[in-house]
Structure formats: C-alpha cells, structure tokens
Amino acid sequence: MLNPQLFPLEVDPQTGEPFLRLRHHKSIILTPARWDDAKQLLEYMNDPRLCVWLNSPPFPYLPEHAESWLGRMIGPSRDILQELEEAKEVAELKTVEDCPVHIIREVMDDGTQKLIGNAHMFRYKNGELVLSDGSWTVDWAGKAKREEENGSRKAGDPEIIWSFGDWLAPSHHNQGIMTDAVETLLHDWGVPRMGVRHMIAAAFEGNMASVKTFTKNGFDMVYTSKNHFEVKGKMQGLHVLEWKAAENLDLISFNFRP
Ligand SMILES: CC(C)(COP(=O)(O)OP(=O)(O)OC[C@H]1O[C@@H](n2cnc3c(N)ncnc32)[C@H](O)[C@@H]1OP(=O)(O)O)[C@@H](O)C(=O)NCCC(=O)NCCS
C-alpha cells in the first residue's frame, strides 16, 4: 500500500521509485537523481547553452563533478524518503526539509524515461543581497551570518528564505516546461510539505527565459545587482526575484487526500 506520507507523490509500480507529475505537461515527471544520470549530466553541464547561465557547476564539467553532485542529491532524497517511511502511521502530513524528487524526466511513448533537466528548492544562498530600509542592497560582510541564521532554522519554519535552481535540456526549451516545474514543485510540495512561504530566486542579468519562468509564477523582479560577481572568469549581474505566499494561504484543499 502507498505510504500516505508521500502525498502527493506517486510511486512507479515497476521500480518502486516515487515521482511527481507536472501539473500541465503530463508526460513529464520529477524523480530522485540516479547514479546512472552521470553520463547525461556531463553532456548537459558542458553545453554552452546551459553552463553560461549557471553559477555552481564547474566548467569543464568532469565525471568526478557529476559523481559528487549526484552524491549530494541522492543522499538527502533517500533520507527524506526514509523519514516519510518511518512516519507512515502518523495521520498528519509531516513537514520535511527537502523535496526528494527534482530530476526532470520525459516519459516516452514506450515507457522509457529521458533525463531533461533539474529543478531544486534549497535554502537561500545569496545572503549578500538584503532588503534594508525598503531598498535592496549588497552587503558581502553580512552574507555568512545571514545564511547561517537562515540555515539554522528548523524545517517548516515559515521565516526560512528558500531559493530555486534549475536548468533544462535545450531540446525542450520554450515549451513552458520549467514554468510548469516551478509551479508544480512550489505548490504541490514546497508550500504544503516543506512549509515554503518565502522564496528569493536569482538569475544572471539578461537571462530573460529564467526571469519569465519565475514572473509567470507570481514572483516579482525586485532588484538587479549590476556586476555582482565573477563567475567562470566573467563578471555577471544578478536579477533578484521574490515570491511570498499569500497571507490567507489555504491548504485545506491540499490536505484533502485519499
Ligand atoms: C531558464 C530555463 C530553465 C527556462 O526553461 P523553459 O522550459 O525553456 O522555460 P519556459 O518555456 O517555461 O518559459 C520561458 C519563457 O521565456 C521566454 N524567453 C525565452 N528566451 C527569451 C529571451 N531571450 N528573452 C525574453 N524571453 C525569452 C519564452 O518565450 C517563455 O515565455 P512565454 O511562455 O511567455 O513565451 C531554460 O531556458 C534553461 O535551462 N536555460 C539555461 C540554464 C538556466 O538559465 N537556468 C536558470 C538559471 S537561474
């Protein structure tokens, strides 16, 4: 029987792997990362159409980078799923720290799956960008302290600032997939299962495709920090996009589960 604590995840009857189907693109699902994703990660993370817009992945992206990243993704997903397994007799849905499914896969007509991207919520990593007396400003000196404070809040604390990172295979760009992934992850897992109430996303200046995936999901572009930092030898500005849950957030319909 399906563990009710996985709600609204479904489980693949053949592999037992949980997944979340996108709200609008029904042939696209989010699953945990798998060790055999390394080959495709290498291809995507070395693709100039993707890597020039990404801060964290090194370039050139080597097999050891893929292995290390997969380790950092697979462990936490497994831990969250274990936590939910241990709570399976608990009536109330548990609030957890992370979303165990984040790799975007297209389910093909023959049932095989193709890795096409990643979309991940995590605690805010741009603590240098701060709202002070109503204006956004950059304060590098206070970055570590702010990120430490944000990181030390307990799972489910509505004061946590979350962020969102993503990329999608160029073959699938401009079909509304990431807009759908942001909507699905935020509203079907982030808000109800992680207690996400405040999110600040960042995109390199000029990355209008990324900006649009957020603004179409109710984020406001609140600030642009020009020449914010050097990434892979090039100065980049940052667009800052903010989302806050409505005060009267209604979770009743979500909690009506089978
Ligand atoms: C950003 C990214 C994830 C968007 O994914 P996607 O599935 O193609 O996005 P969507 O199709 O949902 O939405 C993109 C929107 O931007 C628009 N867009 C695309 N390129 C644009 C550009 N150069 N200028 C303005 N708008 C642009 C599209 O028309 C679409 O808007 P519309 O639906 O109103 O027509 C994808 O482009 C990507 O992987 N880019 C490289 C990596 C990256 O930038 N990651 C994000 C880091 S912050």
Automatic annotation (TrEMBL):
Record-annotated N-acetyltransferase domain positions: 28-219
Taxonomic source organism: Laccaria bicolor (strain S238N-H82 / ATCC MYA-4686) (Bicoloured deceiver)
Entry-linked InterPro entries: Acyl_CoA_acyltransferase (IPR016181), GNAT_dom (IPR000182)
Protein name: Predicted protein
Taxonomy, superkingdom: Eukaryota
Coiled-coil segments: none
Pfam families referenced in this protein's UniProt entry, alphabetically: Acetyltransf_3 (PF13302)
SUPFAM superfamilies for this protein: Acyl-CoA N-acyltransferases (Nat) (SSF55729)
A GO molecular-function descriptor: acyltransferase activity, transferring groups other than amino-acyl groups
